[in-house]
UniProtKB/TrEMBL annotation:
Record-linked InterPro entries: aa-tRNA-synth_Ic, Rossmann-like_a/b/a_fold, Trp-tRNA-ligase, Trp-tRNA-ligase_bac-type, Trp-tRNA_synthetase
Entry's EC annotation: 6.1.1.2
Species in which this protein is naturally found: Kineobactrum sediminis
Record protein name field: Tryptophan--tRNA ligase
Annotated L-tryptophan binding sites: 142
Primary location recorded for the protein, binned into one broad class: cytoplasm
GO molecular function, one term: ATP binding
Enzyme type, top EC level: ligase
Function of the molecule: Catalyzes the attachment of tryptophan to tRNA(Trp).
Gene: trpS
Amino acid sequence: KQRVLTGITTTGTPHLGNYVGAIRPAIEASRADDTESFLFLADYHALIKCQDPAMVRQSSKEIAATWLALGLDTERAVFYRQSDVPEITELTWILCCNAAKGLMNRAHAYKAAVQANEEAGEDPDFGVTMGLFSYPVLMAADILLFGAHQVPVGRDQVQHVEMARDIAQRFNHNFAELFTLPSAVVDDNVALLQGLDGRKMSKSYNNTIPLFLPEKQLRKSINKIKTNLLEPGEPKNPDDSTVFQIWAAFASAGETARMRREFEAGIAWGEAKKQLFELINDELSAPRERYLQLLDDPSHIEQVLQRGAERARSYSMPLLKQVREAVGIARMD
Ligand code: TYM
């Protein structure tokens, strides 16, 4: 069976980019008979970017409710919270002792922080924690501990999956062939969804459209998507338009082709945005109802997560035992 695994960092409210880049493809994959899915809340990853405990807690609840509201079948998929599986952090240390520092120096998130410091004339490592530096190793542990073959992610996470692959290869070579080599799975239609300002939709850019905004606010938010100044009737280039890009991430191939023609025929921005709102709202209004109900029932969510952690550990414990033995850490009797 193919194993599919992905996680979402518990900082902030899930947005359309998380949905089309990771959640939707992962839920689709989890329905196939020949796959086993592992889906989790990356709350240890959250500590890297967020020192606000209330935010981490709230976000964990929102992200868990999101997966459930979107119809994840938690009897089939193993759905858990990263911090409930202690084998992940244990494996992280073992991998830290094996992964090359030079490889981590190349990680985008770390490099971006150093570059920002240099541009600001600061010490390059100002504000850079060991957590940020080791982020890809923690992520490698997430992936390798469950023998994932496929990791559905947005394009921004591909490098991390490749690093996990490198780390696995090195371990397999040095000790024992214990790890499966994972591959990133990126949906080409939506490799990286753009946000309100046309940059990558991201919590750190404050340009997101939250997934379960109430209808009125969703309409308002879509109206804020930046467009160029073309008037109704003037032909518009779909390929440099955020409105069109988001449309393509939600619409069928036929509807996308139709919208492309409408753009070229000069559809008014107001009309294009109205249709975009209707498209997204139709897909999300039923899950939005369930989401609101779930947020009111945290003990149900917790129960689901605890059951998931138990199942996750039935996979992680035996593999970690083998890893410990392979590196020479084991009982003597
Ligand atoms: P995170 O929480 O930043 O994002 C979660 C998922 O959403 C995708 N994504 C996007 N996809 C398309 N367009 C966008 N604008 C967009 N923004 C975010 C991300 O690519 C990601 O797939 N480190 C990871 C979480 C993680 C993980 C893992 C993922 C931890 N361990 C193991 C896979 C496997 C992160 O911070 O994603």
